[in-house]
Amino acid sequence: MRVLGIETSCDETAASVVALDGGSAPEILSNIVLSQIEEHAAFGGVVPEIAARAHVEALDGIIEAALADSSVSLDEVDAIAATAGPGLVGGLIVGLMTAKAIAAAANKPLIAINHLEGHALTARLTDGLDFPYLLLLVSGGHTQIVAVRGVGDYQRWATTIDDALGEAFDKTAKMLGLPYPGGPNVEKAATSGDAGRFAFPRPMKGSAQPDFSFSGLKTAVRQAATAIAPLGDQDVADICASFQAAVADALGDRVARALVRFRQEFPGQAKPALVVAGGVAANRTIKATLEALCSQAGFAFVAPPQKLCTDNAAMIAWAGIERLRAGIADENTADFVPRSRWPLDSVSMPLVGSGRRGAKA
Ligand code: KG4
Ligand code: ZN
With contact defined as beta carbons under 8 Å apart, do 280 and 183 qualify? Predict the structure, then answer.
C-alpha cells in the first residue's frame, strides 16, 4: 500500500508518501514540510489569510517534490489522504481541493483525514504500538488527553477549558518581548532562570474535573511582569523558568490522573504506553516530568521523533493507510467538506472556550 498524504491545516505546507508492504514495518518514502514561520513572525502569530495564500503558492511544488523524493509515481499510489479538519478553513480548502483534483484526475480514492487522528496514530508508524494507548497532544491549538482504542475509535478524556498549552507559551513569550514562536524561546530563556523566584499557580491541580486550564497562569505571569517592570534579562529568565515549572507541575498532575484511569479501564496491559505529540512535546522540562511519571506508574513513555510530533503529512498518509487497512476509508471520500472544527471523539462535546482562540481552534 502506498498513500500520498497532504497537510495544510495551519502554517505548514506538507506532503509525504508512506508505504506499507505485507507484514513489514511501514516506511516513510518522503516527508516534505515547508514551514511558514517567517511569513507570520512579524505578526507574532499565524495570520489565516497569509497562511491560505502561502499554501496555494507552495502546495503543487511540495507534492511534486514528495512524489519525486519517494520514487513513486502518482499511478503507483493507492490513495490520496488529505487533512480535512480541524484547522484554519482557508488552508483546509486548499489542501482538500487539491487532493480531490489529483484523486479525480488520477482515478484514485480520496480519504479525508482528521488532523488529530494523524497525531493520534503516529506512534504506530514510528514505534509499531498496539492499541490501546494513551495520547497526550500538546500543540499550539490543542491540549488533549485521548484514549486511543483503535482506528477511528478515540475517547477524549481531557481538553483545555481556555488556552492551548503552546498558545500559553506563545503568549508568555510575547508578553516578555521574546520572538515568535514563543515555546522554544521561553525554554531557552528558562535555562538560565531561577524556577523558584515566582510562585505561579498550578491551574486545575488536584481538581476532580480532568481538564486543563492555562489562562489563569498567563494572567499571573502578566501581573508578575508588570509588577517588576522594566524587565532585565535575568527577570525574563526567572519568569520563564517559573512559568515552565508551573506548567510541568500542572500538566504532570493531569496526566497522572489519566494514567490511573487508563489502568482501571484497560487492566489487561502489563506495561501500557503514554504517547506524546505536538510541538510542546519538544520541551525538555515537560518531557522529563512525563518520563518520571511514566516510570513511577509502570508506563512506557513514547515520544516519536520531533519531526513527526509536529505537523507533517507522513502522519496524514499513515492515517490513510490505517483507514484503508481497517476497511473504513470510504466513510470520508470525495464529497467531504472541510471542517474547521472536528472533534476526534464525536461523543465529547467541546468545552466552552476550549481551543476557540488558537490558530487551530
Ligand atoms: O505541533 P506544532 O508544531 O503546531 C501546532 O499544531 O500547533 O506546535 C507548535 C507549538 C507552538 O505553540 C510552539 O510555541 C510550541 O509548540 N513549542 C514549544 C516548544 N517548541 C515548540 N513549547 C514549549 N517548548 C518548546 N521547546
Ligand atoms: Zn497538529
Answer: yes
